[in-house]
Amino acid sequence: MVPSRWPHASVGDYGRLSSVGNARLPKTLGLTQKRMPHLGSLRCWFIIIQQTLEDCEMLSMRDIAGQRILITGASSGIGAALAQNLARQGARVIVSARRQDRLQSVVQNLQQEGLVAHMVPMDVRDPDQVTASVPQAAQIFGGLDILINNAGIAYFGEVSSISPTSLKDLIDTNIYGVIYTTQSAVSYLAESHGMVVNLSSTLSKRALPLLTLYAGTKSMVNALSDGLRVELRHYSIHVLNYCAPETETELHDNSLHDSNHPLPSPRRHRAAPDVVARHIIRAIRQERREVVANAGFVWMARLMPNVVDTIAYRRIMLPYWREPPHHSGS
């Protein structure tokens, strides 16, 4: 039964009624100095539900301090930013990637700050290497609490132009890499009732031309996350799927691409790795199920798919076709 005072309670009164301390409604709702509307209004129920969800998140927050976290693809970009931010919050991080020299630099920078960090070089495409490296990482701190599957590459070009070698590299890294690493880490995560964090992409929700294959591999990551979430529930392992926005990382510069066409310049407005990393950490602490960055684009694509198709054709495909091809050997 809702207390009779709620229909006329102020925001401050409602905060005192909440289950967590003296919680307050977000100022972004513009309700700071207003009185709560009548309970029959949709706006009132929206406020009540939102506050209840926020209170539940506060009650179930995961403490980052002391967590043993393995991060793949951590030599740069989002992975390196995650390592830095997690370590600064007291986590014990193990960074992993193919580029050993870059990993060493990441670890040294963290250790110079007095933070706890180690490295285990690993190529997620190689199942034998993963099978050997994950136990090695777990042995450093006597187990694992969180696995962050961040390693990934992109392909820019038409589906009809990708070579078998590039296609295999894309699938091996973005799909098999997630599977191999998760398989090897499950036994350790089961002991700690830990968490798997899979890094997907907003494009997995709505592919754009020339990034079709990359989006397809990330859609597979979404499917893996959904299935794993149920399979691993028996072991009390939580699964978070984070669909990242376009981020200012080396993913663009290191993209596989059609050799007959140059890589286009990246968009001017891209998210900073540190901002994305902090957003991911917040989702980890709240034990979210899935987070989709740039959700406005996703909803627009669902509600007006033909409009998005037309915009993508005009802004992406037409400039691509107008660009004179670069023939190898010319």
From TrEMBL:
GO terms under cellular component: membrane
Pfam families: adh_short (PF00106)
Gene Ontology MF terms in the entry: oxidoreductase activity
SUPFAM superfamilies: NAD(P)-binding Rossmann-fold domains
Protein's UniProt keywords contain Hydrolase: no
Keywords: Oxidoreductase
Family recorded in the similarity comment: Belongs to the short-chain dehydrogenases/reductases (SDR) family.
Protein name per UniProt: Oxidoreductase
Organism, as annotated: Sulfobacillus benefaciens
